[in-house]
Design a protein that fits this description.
By secondary structure, the chain is an all-alpha fold. The chain is built from 10 helices and 2 strands. The chain has a two-stranded antiparallel sheet with strand order 1-2.
């Protein structure tokens, strides 16, 4: 259990008073948060940078954390990591490692029929393979997919966060699903051989 004590500021929140508690916080949550960062960044080196920057923010802001309405410390930290990852993607949008929209993928024709079996397919392969496929998506598709599927953002919230229209968010989510379905089908065919 992470040892926390009341801040000297009284009801201001919690404060970690010793390095051992900070180390325990990191050891407890870093693996899960690194996985979250990796889903957004697509490269382990970038995910590690985001994790580092996010933990600095967490440590600086730990006194502001309050358990409200069933909110948890882990949920609060995840929110900080998602925001840190989004800032990282914005800051590195012009670098070759993050491409917002791939013109080839934009020409994919998407229909409702293409989307429906996606959920059924993901249950047929292991979680690591699915996560690897998510990380291989173009940056824009991956970001929208992560925000919608894992963080439960609405398309309106995604649009506001990424400064895109709701329709662009919907389109990128659909295209991400089509690409994932294609990759999953290819893997299933390989496994049958």
């Amino acid at each position: 259990m992470i040892r926390m004590s009341k801040s000297k500021k009284g009801d201001k929140g919690y404060s970690f008073n010793d390095p051992a508690s900070l180390e325990k916080l990191y050891d407890t949550y870093a693996p899960r948060l690194l996985s979250l960062c990796f889903r957004y960044c697509g490269r382990i080196e970038d995910a590690e940078d985001v994790l580092h920057d996010g933990f600095i923010k967490i440590i600086k802001k730990i006194d502001t954390f309050h358990e409200r309405n069933g909110g948890s410390l882990e949920g609060w930290m995840k929110k900080i990591m998602v925001n840190t990852a989004l800032n990282f993607l914005r800051d590195h949008a012009n670098e070759k490692r993050t491409v917002d929209i791939d013109p080839i993928y934009d020409r994919i024709n998407i229909s409702e029929e293409d989307e429906s079996p996606f959920e059924e397919l993901t249950g047929k392969i292991d979680q690591k393979s699915v996560m690897d496929m998510i990380c291989e998506l173009p940056s824009g598709y991956r970001t929208v997919f992560n925000l919608y599927v894992f963080e439960s953002y609405s398309h309106k919230e995604i649009g506001k966060e990424l400064r895109i229209s709701e329709n662009t968010s919907k389109s990128q989510l659909s295209k991400a699903r089509v690409l994932l379905k294609k990759k999953i089908n290819e893997l299933l065919i390989k496994q049958e051989d």
